[in-house]
Amino acid sequence: MNDTTTIRTRILLALTATLLAASAAVAQTETILHAFNETTDYGYPSAPLIADAAGNLYSTSSSGGPGGHGGVFELSPPAVLGGAWTESMLFSFDEGPDGGSPLAGLVMDANGALYGDCIWWVGKRSGISTGTASGAGWRMD
């Protein structure tokens, strides 16, 4: 083979590999785990999801919920493959002493306690208390 043929062969192989990778990406499907509805649960979940060892997913939502100003939720996987995921509202914010509109993602410690932050805080609490917002941050066991 001369240099021109070698270059053409390499380009053809690179193009073929790219097309195969693209066709594999197209074959993937998307599955909706839960459809949020601000009037019945939470609205606008925008923070990244985190997972525990059991496969439960956790995050925050900036609005909705019983308190009206977002909350912390858990999505539990179905018992049967292909079944429905279950949403649990773990904590609801009302922009009172507990704050509101959590936009940041969560952090989970080794014991499973969740930590997060709210953009609104009206209360006068100090320190971190279980299950409530406090200043810039909160902890939920």
Overview of this protein structure:
This protein is of the alpha+beta class. It is 17% helix and 28% strand. The protein folds into two domains: 1-30; 42-140, no CATH class. The strands form two sheets. Strands 1, 2, 3, 4 and 5 form a five-stranded antiparallel sheet that branches. A hairpin with a 6-residue loop joins strand 3 (57-64) and strand 4 (71-76).
Salient structural properties:
17% helix; single chain; 141 residues; alpha+beta; 2 domains; four-stranded antiparallel beta sheet; elongated
Distance between the termini: 68 Å
Radius of gyration: 23 Å
Main sheet summary: 5 strands, antiparallel
Number of strands: 9
Query: What structural class do helix, strand and pairing data support?
Result: alpha+beta
Q: Beta-sheet strand percentage?
A: 25-35%
C-alpha geometry: elongated
- Total number of domains: 2
Number of alpha- plus pi-helical segments = 1
The topology string of helices and strands comes to HEEEEEEEEE
| Helix fraction by DSSP (H/I, runs of at least 4) | 10-25%
Spans of 5+ residues with little confidence (pLDDT < 50)? 124-136
Mean pLDDT: 76
Give a short summary of the structure.
Helix content is 17%, strand content 28%. With 141 residues, it is of the alpha+beta class.
Secondary structure elements and their pairing?
Elements lengths: L2 H24 L15 E4 L4 E2 L5 E8 L6 E6 L9 E7 L14 E2 L5 E4 L14 E3 L2 E4 L1
Antiparallel strand pairs: 1-3, 2-3, 3-4, 4-5, 6-7, 7-9, 8-9
